[in-house]
Amino acid sequence: MTAQVDLLHVVTTDNITPRRIALGRTLVWGSAGILLLLIATQALFENGYLSFGFENWRPVLYAYVFWAVCFCASQVIIRGEQGKRALFVLPAVLFVASMVIFPLLFGLSIAFSDWNLASPDGRSFNGLDNVRQMWADPFYWNALKNMVYYTMAILVEYAIAFGLALLLNSQIRAQKFFRVAFLMPLMLSPVAVSWMVGKSMLEVRFGPIARLARWIGWEHPSFFGTPEMARTMIMVMDAWTFIPFMMIMILAGLQAIPKEVQEAAKVDGASAIQAFWQVVFPLMLPISITAVLIRIIFKLKLADIIITVTSGGPGGATDSVTSFIFREYRDRSNVGYGTLLAMVYLVVIIIAITIFMKLVDRWMNPRY
Amino acid sequence: MSDSQIFHDSEMDLSHRAKWLTKRVAIYGVLIFWTIICLFPIYWTITTSFKIAPDVMQGNMIPWVDFEPRWKGWKSLGLSPNTIFTESTVRDEFIKRFMNSIKTSVGASTLALILGSCAAYGLSRFNYRFGFMRNSDISFFFLSQLILPPVVLALPFLVLYKKFALLDTSLGLILLYTLTVLPIVIWIMRDQFSAIPVELEEAALVDGLSVWGAFFTIILPIALPGMVAAFILALVLTWNEYFFAALLTSTDAKTLPVMVASQTGSQGINWWSMAALSAAAIFPLVVIGVVLERFIIKGMASGSGK
């Protein structure tokens, strides 16, 4: 726990008069009043109790922004110096809270309803029907299983990234050139990549990779024919874009290791392999775990490549949860069911990541 | 026998040299192999955009040797030398999408940078108490947004945006993109700010600046390289974003990735025009990657510090 004193200690005498406090309070409550009034008006108007109102909820949004600004201003007015400090964090907190917590709560409420956006009936609460449907939905479970496979692929990516980082860290010429070249895939949009690699280079008739495969001796190359092959191809493409990311994090870690440590290992007579496993790798563990964790988080969002290259095929074999929900919405435009699936996914992720962190923690700590 | 050598390299030294050489060859071999893996798709896309149908079918690869480069792909985009000054609906469409992409990605990155830098600075300097939340809780609150997969927010936002008339607007996309990159920006910037010694601000405060004055005039200029790094990382992520853009935009605010993706489905693929489109879509980031590589690496490296 950090000390309770601010790192940057400021002493000022604030002269806050009661009138100032009153002004601040008026600002907050006044703007909140406007906001509530607008919400009430609009809600009544939508349900037909009121003859006047706005075309959409946009004015409510403006009122909310106005309230947020007033709230921030009142902090300074009421609390003086302390308020000025709060002002650093407050906008971001308000932004994230309103962009995440409110939609999440709203999402929870639509997760238990049947809401087809295309139909005029609107939303109808249907209790646990969506849960039952999910339980019996083999495609969703399949997508979850695929996510496990996709996440496992990170181990291979990590090994490759580590190897490349070691190479880049060794004494080579044109280091900058290689670094830029290795970084390039990360800059490219997955959609463009899925066209460039997935659709054109893996084209079975005349794509260069298919040609190469034929030359090696694979008679009829088919990259998206069987489920295993298709899944591997998706993994490869995703790995291609994200290996640079891990590579750079590991490279940064490698460069931070003091030279003396390795020299000491050499003096003690360690071979290169020994020096790596006994010295470099343990030192790199914390950074490796961060890199892998961030990579897992990115992997869990995997969708664009799948949507554009295979759109889940063959037979849902390559679906990730995100791409499955995307298609589910595209095909049936049922918001309720898709939201429930996403919520379950979120819960699964939170549990899995918590377990992962706990395991890592337990595994790391006894050592030191 | 006048040229006979008196001193010979011993067997051991020679073998050492050979070993060193093989090691070098192996290292450079792997490096060059991986460079090819990284760069070949880009090369392939750019060359394909200058091919015509037979060249694509025959898989010709090297311009001027295998095939004669043509402007066909770029012509269909309206960007070849002889069509650049004529009317072209495809080009207008492309430019519109391109501008949309720039608008959303720059807008979101800027907003995230402003919100994120302030928050990160506050968290690195002061102790907050918002109810039960202390600094570490607030940091965790921000960073935990990373775990939230976009799909969880996607459908609720779709419904909400419809209500707020934000569907198919750049503003809507900017707000969402800001949310997705904000944790990364905060993460990078927190690292940057805690590396700056507090004494600097203390001196500034003694000289009569306010907290915010010190932040703007002293700290921000020092943290500028880190801010550039965070900005570029955010730019890359938002420029390439497809999922939200595909879901939440239809005609007006459609971004470049959505345009690229929507070309692939229908009536067979025009290889050359798709290649030209992809090449144009990746071009800005390739340039950024080459020119500002230093900052990108710095950004990612500082993120790994904690």
Helix amount of chain A = over 70%
The CATH architecture of the largest domain in chain A comes to Orthogonal Bundle
CATH homologous superfamily title of the largest domain in chain A: MetI-like
**How many DSSP-defined strands of chain B?**
0
Q: Specify the structural class of chain B.
A: mainly alpha
For the sheet with most strands of chain B, the description reads: none
The description of the largest β-sheet of chain A is:
2 strands, antiparallel
Strand content of chain B: under 5%
**Greatest contact pair?**
A-B, 101 and 106 residues
Q: How many helix segments of chain A?
A: 14
For the terminal residues of chain B, how far apart are their CA atoms? 68 Å
What is the count of β-strands of chain A?
Answer: 2
Give average pLDDT of chain A, whole number. Answer: 84
CATH homologous superfamily heading of the largest domain in chain B:
MetI-like
H/E series of chain A: HHHEEHHHHHHHHHHH
CATH architecture grouping of the largest domain in chain B: Orthogonal Bundle
Structural class of chain A: mainly alpha
Adjacency order of strands in the biggest sheet of chain A: 1-2
Task: Give the overall form of chain A.
Answer: flat
Q: What is the global morphology of chain B?
A: flat
Q: What is the top-level CATH class of the largest domain in chain A?
A: Mainly Alpha
